């Protein structure tokens, strides 16, 4: 190749590039020289990379902002219950952390809808003989021991002096629910950290591990799975000028400000819908359904719920936490309708878990007034008051030994 200088001097382009005293070259020749001096360098690459770096950086930052905003919006809609009508799931990690940070004596109560709707921690606070004791109702509707497994470590780290665990006939059912139940694990994965090495992990079925996030990528995947519903909620709020679907519910909801007085109150006495008492015909039909259901027929075999319950108990007791097992009463008509031998395996399960130093309070076969129940297994306000009295007595008896 021949280069032509402005003064008419003809020289090769290679000579021009190598000559330190050559006149200043045009940008196009400078790029050509760069290629000659570095034969392995692709033509034009230095300029392209330098031009695209700012654009790539802006694109990356924009993507991160969009992802962060999307994830933050998903988390907020899960926390306020506008996406899933049980926002309690998204607050359990913060609840355990809050309890761990509190001075004084703490009692945590876990279980299903029976204790969720039946226990008022503020009532227990008021009736206890031990001043400075706080009672926390962390029961969750639809709960069973297998579903509590991912909470084992945060429950232990809460360092409560006593943990009351529901342990009635339904607790020992071998059933562990469906895909719908695992939504709770997915929501909890966004606020609890797992790595697959936890002591309880081997108890999780292999097909259920996908619902527990063990990496940032897993958490992002789970978070984005809720994006369609969260986006729909965003559109809903735009159309209704900020009104959330969560305002349509009370039961299962939590105020969206951890640590606020309202939030703390909801950890003691969870929000509930108004009581709806069943007619005698509806009660009879409900009882017939329950007696035919395997969910209320306990099994003493070695199943997932049994192993999960035992692991949670052992983890707590190894940490020095006193465990109380409690089986609430049922409607007297339900008790009368139970076929002979229906709960024999519940009795066997109870006996096997009754050991010295671990109270097991079983009110299953106690006859409570019909007025204590809204249905065969849930409590009216008067039933809640009696439950406060019965459970409070058991807790105070144990507090004398641990405080």
Describe this structure as you would to a colleague:
The chain is built from 17 helices and seven strands. It has 403 residues and is an alpha/beta fold. The protein folds into two domains: 42 residues, no CATH class; 245 residues, Rossmann fold (3-Layer(aba) Sandwich). α3 crosses α11 and α6 crosses α17. It is globular. It starts with a strand and ends with a helix.
Question: Brief overview, please?
Answer:
The chain has 403 residues and is an alpha/beta fold. The chain is built from 17 helices and 7 strands. The chain is 47% helix and 8% strand.
Annotation keywords:
single chain; 7 strands; alpha/beta; 2 domains; 403 residues; Rossmann fold
Q: How is this fold's topology laid out?
A:
Blueprint lengths: L1 E3 L5 E3 H6 L8 H11 L7 H35 L12 H10 L3 E6 L2 H6 L2 H7 L5 E5 L7 H4 L3 H6 L4 E5 L16 H7 L26 H10 L1 H13 L21 H8 L11 H12 L12 H15 L3 E6 L4 H6 L6 H10 L6 E3 L18 H22 L1
Parallel strand pairs: 3-4, 3-5, 5-6, 6-7
Antiparallel strand pairs: 1-2
Helix pairs in contact: 3-11, 6-17
């Amino acid at each position: 190749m021949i280069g032509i200088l402005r003064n008419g001097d003809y020289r090769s382009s290679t000579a021009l590039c190598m000559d330190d005293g050559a006149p200043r070259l045009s940008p196009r020749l400078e790029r050509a020289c760069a290629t000659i001096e570095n034969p392995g360098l692709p033509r034009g690459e230095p300029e392209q990379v330098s031009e695209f770096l700012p654009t790539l950086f802006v694109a990356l930052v924009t993507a991160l902002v969009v992802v962060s905003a999307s994830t933050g919006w998903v988390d907020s809609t899960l926390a306020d219950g506008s996406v899933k009508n049980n926002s309690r799931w998204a607050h359990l990690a913060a609840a355990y952390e809050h309890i761990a940070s509190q001075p004084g004596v703490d009692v945590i109560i876990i279980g299903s809808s029976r204790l969720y709707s039946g226990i008022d921690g503020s009532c227990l606070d008021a009736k206890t003989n031990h001043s400075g004791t706080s009672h926390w109702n962390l029961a969750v509707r639809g709960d069973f021991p297998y579903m509590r497994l991912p909470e084992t470590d945060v429950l232990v780290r809460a360092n409560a002096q006593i943990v009351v665990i529901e342990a009635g006939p339904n607790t020992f059912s071998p059933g562990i629910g469906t895909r719908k139940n695992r939504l709770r694990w997915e929501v909890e994965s966004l606020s609890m950290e797992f790595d697959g090495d936890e002591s309880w992990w081997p108890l999780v079925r292999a097909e259920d591990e996908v619902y527990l996030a063990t990496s940032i990528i897993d958490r992002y995947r789970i978070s984005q799975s809720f994006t369609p519903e969260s986006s729909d909620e965003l559109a809903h709020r735009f159309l209704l000028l900020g009104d959330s679907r969560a305002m349509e519910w009370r039961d299962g909801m939590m105020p969206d400000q951890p640590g606020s007085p309202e939030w703390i109150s909801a950890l003691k006495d969870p929000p509930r819908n108004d009581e709806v008492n069943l007619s005698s015909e509806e009660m009879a039909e409900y009882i017939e359904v329950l007696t035919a259901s395997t969910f209320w027929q306990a099994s003493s075999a070695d199943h997932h719920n049994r192993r999960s319950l035992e692991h949670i108990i052992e983890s707590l007791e190894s940490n020095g936490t006193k465990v109380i097992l409690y089986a609430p009463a049922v409607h007297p008509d339900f008790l009368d309708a139970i076929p002979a031998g229906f709960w024999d395996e519940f009795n066997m399960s109870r006996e096997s878990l009754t050991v010295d130093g671990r109270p097991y309070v079983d009110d299953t076969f106690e006859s409570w007034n019909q007025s204590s129940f809204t249905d065969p297994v849930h409590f009216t306000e008067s039933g809640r008051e009696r439950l406060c009295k019965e459970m409070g007595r058991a807790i105070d008896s144990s507090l004398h030994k641990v405080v």
